[in-house]
């Protein structure tokens, strides 16, 4: 093995606006670094093969699968998790809509749902219900049957667009 | 499962990447967006790889027109292919394929080069690239070569890339004035890999119809193309199943996939403006 | 004093209202604490070497290389594990003839299903434990696998367990009336064959346990993602030879359970044993791949059935032969026979008829263990019943709604003892059908269906009436000797400022236990819901109870909470009466203020009672009771179960070229008795429907003939996602149970019970004119096209 390959990777990146330095195993994915190394347990590992969406976090502004993102690849990146998004109020409207509509039951999928939904409600147009369903189709929820989640996102999207909700 | 990797290194530039791959003694593995590779690592399908991360080579990212071709950098992410105005203008097939690929969060990191090099026979981009008759630009320690899409996809997860090669870009012929593109696929759930799908291009020179999820690699459907060229859609739909080599798995039997290909061809033909 | 639930203007009227869940705020902020979020000092991680064979003899185990691997702390095989952890048998004494052999935490000598844990590898991190587990070399001598349900009892099928005569776990026939005579003389007999795919729960949070043995205190604390903490406390104590008082089970936030997490799993017990061996905390979190292999599976059934009718389309009888495949063991402690038993009880449930025969055969397989999963047996029984009913209606030329109207048990007939032996207190099939027809505008939909049919669009409308078993008494498990509690308890304590802590034996998995307990206690005591702090899931502090299963939380735990809350109120008022030198009966508590019951005039803030009792008790009469903490337990006794009922409808569109089914809309009218929180009930129903849709359209654990799993990942095992799910209209009829003051029955399983049958009937309504019928779930596009004869092999 050449010196250039390392088993442990030194990382500097920002998480929720704070600079973080960590040395992590080369194969460790972002979600494990957040949970195990940084104690940010709000994001969850649901399947670790990129299907369930429970690990969805923001990397450089875009929702990504935390389990399919090697931590080594977020060097110098800006990562936001549900903890930081809660602190800044960036998804406060979505969170309030989820609570009001009971769009969560066990809550395990919810942090990933919020991150995925954030990207949708930030678009300039109000999405249709079909568009919401399609956009959220990479995030698994076993509890709700999805309708309440669609309702909550629709409510938040309309409010952001200045439309009155029904 | 937890990924078990042998090591990781960030390539500064292509030359550095070639050095790293050479030093890896056969255990080297290029990682770009990682959306297939990291899943494979987490599933334990591969272990001990020495990962060469090429995402820092920014030259490999972006889209530009050169002559009558659209040049797409291998590191261009799916999301950028989907929103790039040049792609929409000159290779609309690729833009139309993007929303069919997995989900937002995957498209935000996955790269077109990664998808092509991974060569999943059920993936959309390899089929589109073959339908478009694109050329893949491959660079390696021995230099640069261009591989026609028809020669690139060899078998399941197997391409013409040699040990130490890196796919750096794709040259797609720009759409002609009378050219039509289309894509149809059948998935049980939005974003799933297609049970079977078809990418189609209709040019003055004739049709190019490529099936995915229907064989060990994207399959160019010659008999169906000839029938479409002859204006016989029914014959094309009847023929296409017979020229596929689809798998049987828990999503459907080979017979079902053959049937589905015929149905999808009828729908694709409508997209391509073929008379029904 | 009784509460007038029907008066919405009564004081403290929180029961029956939608109030927000007190624990939702933390969950949306990512502040839940699930088991895998817990890290304890000196904690190590276990990974299991699991059997790659469905059936094999273990020849030898070599752990040499693994022992030397980085980070390894301890490696334990089945023989060593058996020295500190006793095996178990999932049997119930009242199920005569049932058999199942002892099951060990780690396999000893033989493996009998793919994924059975064989060796435990403990290391500093999960990754190191997995890497070392890869180095354990187990030499297996493969044996023939039994993987086919209908041939499991054939003479030439190998027998899985040595010493047994066959692969039969349990068989029961429930028969009444003159079945043979009735069918022989019936105007019409309609037959059907039905299959339900083996599926699994796929809770988003995988199973997880952190076991923490403290030798100094001789106490085991187990943080577990589980539904029944007291059950687990008792069973861990039993199999690890500890006093029950020295086992503390904590179930904090649980990321979905649905019955998956109400069972005893070998890997979890092994983790607890490992902690005892090592004297330090050990964590096991199943990864998704081992979840598919090791979580319980369910509903692997195949059945033939027939229904006898008179000339007016009245049902005379049902005759069903149902077969269920389980794994090589019956689940512990509930048994895997219950799913089949439920089928023997529930066939024909909504209908009035006199002749009944259902035989259920539960057989062993070399596959994952099947067990209780949301709506145990209901989806199977409802699909058989409603499939036969729909086919009968069609063959008699009667509209399916009209056919049901003719045959359901009349709303004014209750109480009823059915021919199947069920005691039904009060149901509302007729009212439910009326409400459904109105909600969906049935006639307009039928007209639209006919119009579209003419244009080549194939829509189908499917109806499914159902009954659901909730609020179980000890009749289910207790009488069989299982230490599964059918009673439950609640302790309420008023703190000095007048706020109340309520400790309940019922647990929270997201269904809203904390919300409804807060509502019930708030109303019972007379304070606002936000003044009630609900504590669940900790055997050290919560009253001994059964936990959450069989839709019992609201009906049993809620009644206990109501009684405890009323007792606390009475105690507060007794003290207040003494302080005010008046009569307790003349006082009431409203919004946290003691008032004159007659005039509503304020008399005393409740916190003044707290101040006096806790800090100036010397000012009260010495003999005055002053326990501002009250506990009540509750168990049902008049009926073995509180049955609920409902009816669902599905509107689908079938593409006859691809076989794809598009779900356009779904309706459910449901009667769960008193509704405590309408929004929570609606969302239980919606979530349950989608889980039922999963079984109807998508979900099936597929094994090959050798017992290898073909689709054990989330990419291959399809769960319902948002893109394909319909919007759902939910309506309610309320027929409260009179067993308790609260009147609540369960609502957690109705959606799942009825949805698959409604979908099946809708698909068949769409494709019957094209000459097809499907009765094998899941209804994949390929199965639909094959039913239509459109695929050439």
TrEMBL record, chain A:
GO molecular function: 2 iron, 2 sulfur cluster binding; metal ion binding; oxidoreductase activity
Domain of life where this protein originates: Bacteria
InterPro entries: 2Fe-2S-bd, 2Fe-2S-bd_dom_sf, 2Fe-2S_ferredoxin-like_sf, 2Fe-2S_ferredoxin-type, 2Fe2S_fd_BS, Beta-grasp_dom_sf, Diverse_Oxidoreductases
Keyword Kinase: no
Record Pfam families: Fer2, Fer2_2
Signal peptide feature range: none
Residues of the 2Fe-2S ferredoxin-type domain: 9-85
Record bears the keyword Oxidoreductase: yes
Keywords assigned by UniProt, alphabetized: 2Fe-2S, Iron, Iron-sulfur, Metal-binding, Oxidoreductase
Name the UniProt record assigns to this protein: (2Fe-2S)-binding protein
Species for this entry: Roseivivax isoporae LMG 25204
Automatic annotation (TrEMBL), chain B:
MF GO annotations: FAD binding; oxidoreductase activity
Keyword Oxidoreductase attached: yes
Matches recorded under Gene3D superfamilies: 3.30.465.10, CO dehydrogenase flavoprotein, C-terminal domain, Uridine Diphospho-n-acetylenolpyruvylglucosamine Reductase, domain 2
Xref: SMART domains: CO_deh_flav_C
Protein keywords: FAD, Flavoprotein, Oxidoreductase
Superkingdom of the source species: Bacteria
Ranges where the FAD-binding PCMH-type domain occurs: 1-177
UniProt KW Nucleotide-binding keyword: no
Protein name: Carbon monoxide dehydrogenase
Organism (species): Roseivivax isoporae LMG 25204
TrEMBL record, chain C:
Keyword Oxidoreductase: yes
GO terms for MF: iron ion binding; oxidoreductase activity
InterPro entries the UniProt entry points to: Ald_Oxase/Xan_DH_a/b (IPR000674), Ald_Oxase/Xan_DH_a/b_sf (IPR036856), Ald_Oxase/xanthine_DH-like (IPR016208), AldOxase/xan_DH_MoCoBD1 (IPR008274), AldOxase/xan_DH_MoCoBD2 (IPR046867), AldOxase/xan_DH_Mopterin-bd_sf (IPR037165)
Aldehyde oxidase/xanthine dehydrogenase a/b hammerhead domain location: 29-144
Taxonomy, superkingdom: Bacteria
PANTHER family: ALDEHYDE OXIDASE 1-RELATED (PTHR11908:SF132), XANTHINE DEHYDROGENASE (PTHR11908)
UniProt-recorded name of the protein: Carbon monoxide dehydrogenase
């Amino acid at each position: 093995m050449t010196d250039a390959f390392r088993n442990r990777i030194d990382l500097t990146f920002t998480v929720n606006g704070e600079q973080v330095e960590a040395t992590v195993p080369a194969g460790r994915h972002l979600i494990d670094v957040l949970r195990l190394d940084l104690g940010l347990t709000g994001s969850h590992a649901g399947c670790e093969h990129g299907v369930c969406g429970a690990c969805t976090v923001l990397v450089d502004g875009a929702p990504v699968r935390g389990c399919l993102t090697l931590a080594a690849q977020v060097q110098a990146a800006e990562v936001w998790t549900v903890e930081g998004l809660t602190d800044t109020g960036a998804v406060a409207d979505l969170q309030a809509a989820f609570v009001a509509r009971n769009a969560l039951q066990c809550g395990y999928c919810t942090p990933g749902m919020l991150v995925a939904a954030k990207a949708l409600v930030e678009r300039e147009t109000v999405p249709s219900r079909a568009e919401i369903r399609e956009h959220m189709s990479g995030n698994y929820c076993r509890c709700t049957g999805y309708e309440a989640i669609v309702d909550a996102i629709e409510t938040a999207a309309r409010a952001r667009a200045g439309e009155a909700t029904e | 499962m937890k990924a078990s990797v042998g090591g990781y290194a960030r390539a500064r530039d292509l030359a550095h990447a070639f050095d790293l791959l050479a030093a890896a003694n056969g255990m080297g593995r290029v990682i770009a967006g990682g959306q297939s590779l990291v899943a494979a690592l987490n599933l334990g399908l591969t272990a001990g790889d020495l990962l060469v991360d090429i995402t820092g080579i920014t030259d490999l990212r972006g889209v530009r027109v050169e002559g009558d071709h659209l040049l797409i950098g291998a590191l261009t992410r799916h999301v950028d292919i989907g929103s790039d105005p040049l792609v929409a203008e000159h290779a609309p097939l690729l833009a139309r394929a993007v929303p069919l690929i997995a989900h937002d969060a995957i498209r935000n990191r996955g790269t077109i080069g990664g998808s092509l090099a991974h060569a999943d026979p059920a993936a959309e981009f390899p089929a589109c690239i073959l339908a478009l008759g694109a050329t893949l630009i491959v660079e390696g320690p021995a230099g640069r070569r261009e591989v026609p899409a028809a020669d690139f996809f060899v078998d399941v997860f197997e391409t013409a890339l040699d040990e130490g090669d890196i796919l750096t870009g794709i040259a797609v012929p720009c759409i002609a004035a009378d050219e039509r593109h289309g894509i149809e696929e059948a998935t049980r759930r939005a974003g799933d890999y297609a049970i079977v799908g078809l990418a189609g291009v209709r040019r003055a020179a004739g049709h190019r119809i490529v099936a995915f999820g229907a064989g060990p690699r994207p399959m160019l459907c010659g008999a169906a193309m000839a029938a479409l060229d002859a204006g016989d859609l029914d014959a094309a739909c009847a023929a296409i199943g017979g020229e596929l080599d689809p798998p049987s798995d828990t999503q459907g039997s080979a017979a079902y996939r053959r049937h589905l290909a015929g149905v999808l061809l009828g729908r694709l033909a409508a997209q391509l403006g073929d008379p029904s | 004093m009784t509460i007038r639930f029907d008066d919405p203007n009564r004081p403290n009227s929180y029961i029956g209202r939608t109030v927000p869940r007190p624990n939702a705020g933390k969950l949306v902020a990512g502040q839940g604490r699930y088991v895998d979020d817990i890290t304890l000092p000196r904690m190590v991680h276990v990974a299991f070497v699991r059997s790659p064979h469905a059936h094999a003899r273990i020849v030898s185990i070599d752990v040499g290389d693994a022992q030397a691997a980085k980070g390894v702390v301890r490696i334990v095989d089945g023989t060593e594990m058996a020295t500190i952890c006793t095996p178990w048998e999932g049997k119930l004494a009242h199920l005569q003839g049932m058999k199942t052999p002892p099951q060990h935490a780690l396999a000893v000598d033989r493996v009998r299903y793919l994924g059975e844990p064989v060796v435990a590898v403990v290391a500093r991190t999960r990754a190191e434990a997995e890497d070392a587990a890869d180095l354990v070399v187990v030499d297996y001598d493969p044996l023939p696998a039994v993987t086919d349900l209908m041939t499991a009892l054939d003479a030439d099928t190998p027998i899985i367990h040595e010493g047994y005569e066959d692969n039969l776990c349990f068989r029961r026939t429930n028969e009444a009336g003159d079945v043979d005579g009735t069918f022989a003389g019936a105007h019409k007999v309609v037959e059907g064959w039905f299959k339900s795919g083996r599926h699994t729960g796929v809770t988003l949070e995988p199973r997880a346990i952190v076991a923490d043995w403290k030798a100094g205190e001789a106490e085991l604390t187990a943080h577990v993602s589980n539904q029944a903490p007291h059950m687990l406390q008792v069973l861990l104590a039993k199999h690890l030879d500890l006093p029950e008082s020295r086992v503390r089970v904590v179930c904090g936030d649980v990321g979905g359970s649905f019955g998956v997490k109400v069972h005893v799993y070998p890997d979890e017990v092994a983790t607890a044993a490992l902690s005892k061996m090592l004297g330090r905390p050990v964590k096991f979190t199943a990864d998704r791949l081992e979840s598919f292999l090791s979580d319980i599976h369910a509903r692997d059934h195949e059945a033939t059935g027939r229904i006898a009718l008179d000339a007016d389309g009245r049902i005379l009888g049902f005759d069903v032969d149902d077969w269920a495949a389980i794994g090589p063991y019956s689940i512990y402690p509930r048994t895997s026979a219950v799913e089949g038993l439920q089928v023997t009880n529930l066939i024909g449930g909504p209908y009035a008829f006199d002749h009944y025969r259902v035989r259920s055969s539960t057989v062993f397989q070399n596959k994952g263990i099947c067990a209780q999963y949301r709506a145990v047996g209901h989806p199977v029984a409802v699909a058989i019943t409603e499939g036969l009913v729909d086919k009968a209606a069609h063959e008699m030329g009667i509209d399916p709604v009209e056919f049901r109207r003719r045959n359901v048990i009349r709303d004014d007939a209750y109480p009823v003892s059915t021919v199947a032996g069920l005691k039904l207190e009060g149901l509302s099939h007729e009212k439910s059908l009326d409400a459904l027809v109105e909600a969906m505008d049935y006639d307009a939909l039928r007209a639209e269906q006919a119009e579209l049919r003419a244009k080549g669009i194939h829509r189908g409308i499917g109806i499914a009436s159902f009954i659901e078993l909730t609020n179980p008494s000890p009749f289910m498990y207790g009488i069989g000797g299982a230490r599964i509690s059918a009673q439950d308890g609640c302790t309420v304590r008023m703190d000095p400022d007048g706020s109340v802590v309520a400790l309940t034996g019922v647990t929270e998995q997201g269904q809203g236990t904390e919300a409804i307990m807060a509502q019930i206690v708030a109303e019972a005591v007379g304070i606002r819901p936000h003044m009630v702090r609900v504590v669940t899931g900790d055997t050290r502090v919560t009253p001994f109870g059964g936990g959450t299963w069989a839709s019992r939380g609201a009906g049993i735990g809620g009644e206990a909470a109501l009684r405890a809350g009323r007792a606390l109120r009475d105690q507060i008022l007794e003290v207040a009466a003494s302080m005010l030198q008046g009569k307790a009966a003349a006082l009431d508590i409203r919004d946290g203020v003691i008032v004159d019951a007659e005039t509503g005039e304020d008399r005393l803030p409740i916190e003044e009672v707290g101040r006096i009792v806790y800090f100036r008790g010397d000012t009260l009469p010495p003999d005055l009771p002053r326990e501002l903490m009250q506990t009540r337990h509750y168990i049902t006794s008049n009926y073995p179960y509180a049955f609920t009922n409902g009816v669902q409808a599905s509107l689908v569109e079938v593409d006859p070229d691809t076989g794809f089914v598009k779900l356009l809309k779904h309706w459910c009218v449901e009667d769960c008795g008193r509704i405590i929180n309408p929004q929570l009930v609606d969302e239980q129903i919606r979530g349950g429907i989608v889980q039922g849709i999963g079984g109807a359209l998508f979900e099936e654990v597929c094994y090959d003939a050798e017992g290898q799993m073909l689709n054990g990942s989330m990419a291959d095992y399809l769960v319902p996602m948002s893109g394909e799910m319909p919007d759902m209209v939910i309506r309610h009829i309320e027929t409260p149970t009179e067993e308790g003051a609260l009147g609540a029955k369960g609502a957690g399983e109705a959606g799942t019970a009825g949805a698959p049958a409604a979908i099946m009937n809708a698909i068949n309504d769409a494709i019957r004119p094209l000459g097809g019928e499907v009765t094998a779930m899941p209804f994949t596009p390929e199965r639909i096209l094959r039913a239509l004869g459109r695929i050439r092999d």
